[in-house]
Design goal:
Blueprint lengths: L1 H17 L4 H19 L4 H31 L8 E6 L4 E8 L7 E9 L3 E8 L2 E8 L3 E14 L5 E15 L26 E10 L11 H7 L3 E7 L7 E5 L6 H12 L7 E5 L9 H10 L11 H6 L9 E5 L6 H8 L8 E6 L10 H6 L12 H10 L3 E6 L4 E3 L1 H6 L14
Parallel strand pairs: 1-7, 10-11, 10-12, 12-13, 13-14
Antiparallel strand pairs: 2-5, 3-6, 4-5, 6-7, 8-9, 14-15
Length: about 425
C-alpha cells in the first residue's frame, strides 16, 4: 500500500506540473469566473464585470505564452542531453556546464527557471548572454555522481501559469572538498612518523654484510681483494630489510556536518601532514590506500556512507599491521551522531589513544543581530551546527583521545578553552600547538 501511494503521488505531481495553471492561477480563474457570473453578469456590475474579464484575459494570455515558451524550449533542447557531461571541480567553485535556455526577450510574460534535483546540493545560476541564459553551477558539498536530473520551469512573471518538466542527462561529476585555508604549521607530532625496517623480508638495502662463498652465488659479489690477501672466498650480502612501511594510519568518518572535516582531511593530504608514507581509508571504502589522490577520492565517495559513519573503522583497524596502530589519526564530524559510539568501540583496543581531527564551520560567537533586524534586513539564518562541538569534544577527550579542532573559515586551530566558549562568547586569538 505504501509503495502504491508513493507511485500515485509521483504520478499526480507529474500531472500537476504539466497542466499550465499554478495554484494562484486556478484561484484567479475560478474566483474571477464566480465573481463575474454572480455579480458582474447577474447584478449588472459593469465595473466588476470588466475587472474580472480583464483578469481572466490576463490568465489566458499567460497560459498561452507559457505553453508556447515550453514548446520552444523543448524544441531547442532536442538532443542536448544525450551526450554525457563531465565536471571535476572543488566545492564552492562556480563552473559553466554548457547548458543554456532561451530568455524570450520579445515575450514579456515568460521566464525560465532551472534547478537540479539530483544532485540536490548544487546552486544553479542562469547568467544572461545575449538571447540565452547560460547555466552556471556552484556545488556546496563533495560527491561523485553519474547523472544529472534537472527541473525546468516555464512561468509567467505574475505567477499565474507555469509548466514544469524534468530532463535527465548522463554525467561524470566529481566535486572535491573545499581546500582548507589552515596554515601548514598545523602539522602535529602525532600526525606523522618515520618508516621502519622489518627484520624479515626481501634482501634490500646497502651491501654491508659478508659471508663465505657458496655454490650459486654470483661471482660479481666475490670480494677478490680479500681473497688475494687471505685466500678465502667471501661474498657481499645486503642487509635484510624491506622498504619503509606506512607509519601513519588515518581514517575518515562520514556523517552529517562532515564537510568541514573533509576540507581539513584534504589539507592534511595536500600538505603531506600525514607523513611521507601512510595508509588511509574512509567510510564506504573496501580497503585502505597509500596515495594522496586515492585518499581524496575515498573522502569524496564517503558521502554515500553518512548514515553508517564509522561502521568500517573496526574492520579497517583489525586489518592493519599492529605495529602501525601507535600512530592513528581519525577525522570525524563536528556533529554528534551514531558514529561516535562506533568510533569509541572500535578504538578501545588501540595500543595508544588516537589523534582525532574535527573540522567545523560557522560563527564562533553567536550573532548579536536581533530577530526583527534579521527579518527586516533579510539576513540568512546563522549556522548553529557548531554548537554541538563541545559535547563531541568532551566525549572524545573522556575516551583519552588527543583532539584537534580546525575552524575551516578562518583556518584557526582552536584550543580547549576556545572550544568551551564556542557559541557563548567571543573566542580568543589563534591557539598555538606545542611541537
Amino acid at each position: 500500500m505504501k509503495h502504491t501511494l508513493a507511485h500515485l503521488g509521483r504520478l499526480l505531481r507529474s500531472l500537476w506540473r504539466l497542466q499550465p495553471l499554478s495554484a494562484l492561477g486556478w484561484t484567479v480563474g475560478v474566483g474571477g469566473w464566480l465573481l463575474y457570473d454572480r455579480y458582474g453578469r447577474a447584478e449588472s456590475d459593469f465595473v466588476l464585470r470588466a475587472a474580472m474579464l480583464l483578469a481572466l484575459a490576463l490568465l489566458i494570455v499567460a497560459a498561452v505564452f507559457v505553453l508556447l515558451g515550453t514548446g520552444v524550449l523543448l524544441l531547442r533542447q532536442r538532443g542536448t542531453f544525450a551526450q554525457p557531461t563531465e565536471c571535476s571541480v572543488d566545492a564552492g567553485t562556480p563552473v559553466a556546464t554548457g547548458v543554456s535556455v532561451p530568455r524570450f526577450p520579445w515575450w514579456p510574460f515568460v521566464e525560465v527557471d532551472l534547478a537540479w534535483q539530483q544532485p540536490a546540493d548544487v546552486v544553479v545560476n542562469l547568467v544572461a548572454e545575449g538571447g540565452v541564459a547560460r547555466e552556471h553551477i556552484t556545488p556546496r558539498g563533495r560527491g561523485r555522481f553519474s547523472s544529472i536530473r534537472r527541473l525546468f520551469t516555464v512561468r509567467d512573471i505574475f505567477g499565474l501559469a507555469r509548466v514544469s518538466f524534468v530532463r535527465t542527462q548522463p554525467a561524470a561529476l566529481r566535486f572535491a572538498p573545499v581546500r582548507g585555508s589552515a596554515d601548514v604549521a598545523l602539522a602535529m607530532r602525532h600526525a606523522s612518523g618515520e618508516g621502519y625496517a622489518h627484520p624479515a623480508g626481501e634482501p634490500e638495502g646497502d651491501l654491508v654484510e659478508m659471508r663465505r662463498y657458496a655454490p650459486g652465488d654470483p661471482l660479481r659479489m666475490v670480494l677478490w681483494k680479500v681473497y688475494a690477501r687471505t685466500r678465502r672466498l667471501l661474498v657481499r650480502m645486503p642487509e635484510r630489510a624491506i622498504a619503509p612501511r606506512p607509519s601513519t594510519v588515518a581514517y575518515f568518518v562520514a556523517g552529517p556536518g562532515d564537510e568541514a572535516t573533509a576540507s581539513t582531511a584534504r589539507l592534511f593530504l595536500d600538505h603531506g601532514l600525514l607523513g611521507d608514507t601512510f595508509v588511509f581509508a574512509a567510510d564506504g571504502a573496501d580497503h585502505g590506500v597509500e596515495t594522496a589522490d586515492a585518499a581524496l577520492d575515498a573522502v569524496i565517495d564517503s558521502v554515500a556512507a553518512r548514515p553508517r559513519g564509522a561502521s568500517g573503522l573496526g574492520h579497517f583497524l583489525r586489518n592493519v599491521d599492529p605495529a602501525q596502530l601507535g600512530n592513528c589519526v581519525i577525522f570525524v564530524p563536528g556533529v554528534r551522531g551514531p558514529w561516535l559510539d562506533r568510533l569509541l568501540e572500535a578504538t578501545r583496543s588501540l595500543p595508544v589513544p588516537p589523534t582525532v581531527i574535527i573540522g567545523i564551520d560557522g560563527a564562533l560567537a553567536p550573532s548579536r543581530v536581533g530577530r526583527l533586524a534579521r527579518v527586516v534586513q533579510a539576513t540568512p539564518p546563522q549556522d548553529r551546527s557548531i554548537e554541538a562541538l563541545p559535547a563531541v569534544h568532551a566525549a572524545l577527550q573522556a575516551a583519552g583521545a588527543t583532539v584537534r579542532v580546525v575552524h575551516r573559515s578562518s583556518g584557526r586551530l582552536l584550543s580547549d578553552d576556545d572550544v568551551g566558549r564556542v557559541g557563548h562568547a567571543d573566542v580568543a586569538g589563534p591557539a598555538e600547538v606545542a611541537a
